């Protein structure tokens, strides 16, 4: 090959690109965690209870969630929290029995407007009625652990903490529950490392707490309201703590189709968020920027593009005779895709098996990012969305 310098240079570029892409994917999903562990991020700090427990307002945004609300309200009011607790439900646009259900709970404040503006608009409106020092956001379709609010408040004893992310758990009662639940176990572990290093990067809308004074109204068409709200805390030079003892339990998607619909919507919201992000403000905070780029940008932009390119480059290098290593790597990649296909077939029948479900869900998430990018570019994702089952 050295007799043909142009071909040699091309092969060198392809080999270099292949290994850079492979390293990027590995670092995003494995190497980053190892790096944070090397910095001691796995150690947890103990939070002492406050001398005086602050008053809380739990804000629940609900649209046509009447069948679930009674259980949600009872679950919230039964929380073992020592301080004063208020519950505020904002149900704009609801046309079901929400008002009738909440009439059985006179201590719960209901805001309801005939016009449906989406969750972000509902939260903006609800926050005008919040006067407590801390506000808790929780989705209507999740149930909280019995002491979730107790644990969620503890990290606020650190004045540098502006928000606290709770842990999202998925009931592993089906094939989709196994797949989603496994992913959230991994995600929760990374959040713990993030918070130990500096700050969690975002919080799930199922359960997170915020210092009320740090709330900033969002554009009403914001899709990922939970990420936008929580990251705004970081841009105000506060940390986002993570408290796994404060958990919210959610049912899995009813089918692979429903999970795809949910993931693609989230992906479209991710690209909307990236377009609107104040990158200059983020880059002025190096630790937060490093975490955001690895945990969000590389997952959303780099890896979904890198994976098909890795397969293509690997095929070229293997068939061009670049060495036996590339033939071995190509076989391993093809095996991973075959396992993923098997995992998809199992999930369609409501079953799961870790060796095939894991590679499928990994590739599935990256595919959904590409589909979400396409939807965002075409302007097809509304802030008003059809709920997945």
Features:
389 residues; alpha/beta; Spore Coat Polysaccharide Biosynthesis Protein SpsA, Chain A; 2 domains; 8-stranded mixed β-sheet; globular
Structure described in brief:
With 389 residues, the protein is of the alpha/beta class. Helices cover 53% and strands 13% of the residues. An 8-stranded mixed beta sheet has the order 3-2-1-4-7-6-8-5, sandwiched between helices.
The portion of residues forming beta strands comes to: 5-15%
Number of separate structural domains: 2
Rounded mean pLDDT score: 91
- Identify the CATH architecture of the largest domain: Alpha-Beta Complex
Instruction: Compute the number of helices.
Output: 12
Q: Note poorly predicted spans.
A: none
Report the strand count.
Answer: 8
How large, in whole angstroms, is the Cα Rg?
Answer: 23 Å
Strand order of the largest sheet: 3-2-1-4-7-6-8-5
Quick one: CATH superfamily of the largest domain? Spore Coat Polysaccharide Biosynthesis Protein SpsA, Chain A
Question: What can you see in these coordinates?
Answer:
- It is a single chain.
- By secondary structure, the protein is an alpha/beta fold.
- It contains twelve helices and eight strands.
- The chain has helices at 5-38, 66-77, 98-102, 119-127, 148-153, 175-197, 225-234, 256-276, 279-283, 286-319, 324-348, 354-377, and strands at 56-61, 85-90, 108-111, 134-138, 142-144, 161-170, 207-211, 239-250.
- The chain has an eight-stranded mixed sheet with strand order 3-2-1-4-7-6-8-5, with helices on both faces.
- Strand 2 (85-90), helix 3 and strand 3 (108-111) form a beta-alpha-beta unit.
- Helix 10 (286-319) packs across helix 12 and helix 11 crosses helix 12 (354-377).
- The protein is globular, with a radius of gyration of 23 Å.
- The model has no long low-confidence stretch (mean pLDDT 91).
């Amino acid at each position: 090959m050295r007799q043909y310098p142009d071909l040699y240079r091309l092969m060198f570029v392809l080999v270099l690109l292949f290994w850079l892409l492979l390293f990027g994917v590995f670092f995003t999903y494995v190497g980053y965690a190892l790096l944070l562990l090397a910095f001691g991020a796995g150690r947890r700090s103990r939070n002492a209870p406050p001398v005086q427990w602050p008053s809380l307002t739990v804000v629940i945004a609900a649209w046509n969630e009447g069948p679930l609300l009674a259980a949600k309200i009872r679950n919230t009011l039964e929380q073992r929290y020592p301080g004063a607790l208020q519950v505020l439900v904002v149900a704009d646009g609801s046309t079901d029995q929400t008002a009738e259900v909440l009439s059985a709970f006179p201590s719960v404040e209901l805001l309801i407007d005939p016009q449906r503006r989406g969750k972000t608009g509902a939260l903006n409106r609800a926050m005008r009625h919040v006067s407590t020092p801390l506000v808790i956001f929780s989705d209507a379709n999740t149930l909280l652990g019995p002491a979730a609010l107790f644990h969620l408040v503890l990290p606020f004893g650190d004045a540098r903490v502006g928000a606290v992310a709770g842990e999202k758990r998925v009931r592993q009662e089906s094939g989709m529950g196994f797949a989603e639940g496994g992913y959230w176990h991994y995600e929760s572990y990374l959040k713990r490392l993030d918070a130990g290093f500096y700050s969690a990067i975002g919080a799930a809308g199922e359960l997170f707490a915020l210092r009320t004074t740090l709330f900033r109204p969002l554009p009403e068409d914001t899709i990922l309201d939970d990420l936008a709200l929580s990251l705004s805390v970081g841009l105000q030079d506060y940390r986002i703590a993570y408290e796994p003892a404060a958990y919210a339990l959610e049912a899995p998607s009813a089918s692979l189709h429903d999970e795809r619909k949910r993931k693609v919507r989230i992906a479209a919201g991710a690209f909307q968020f990236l377009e609107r992000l104040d990158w200059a403000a983020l880059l002025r905070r190096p630790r937060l920027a490093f975490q955001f780029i690895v945990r969000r940008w590389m997952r959303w932009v780099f890896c979904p593009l890198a994976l098909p390119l890795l397969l293509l480059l690997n095929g070229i290098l293997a068939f061009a005779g670049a060495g036996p290593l590339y033939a071995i790597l190509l076989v391993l990649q093809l095996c991973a895709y075959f396992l993923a296909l098997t995992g998809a077939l199992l999930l369609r029948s409501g079953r799961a098996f870790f060796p095939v479900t894991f590679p499928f869900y990994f590739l599935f998430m990256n595919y959904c990012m590409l589909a979400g990018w396409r939807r965002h570019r075409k302007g097809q994702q509304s802030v008003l969305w059809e709920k997945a089952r």
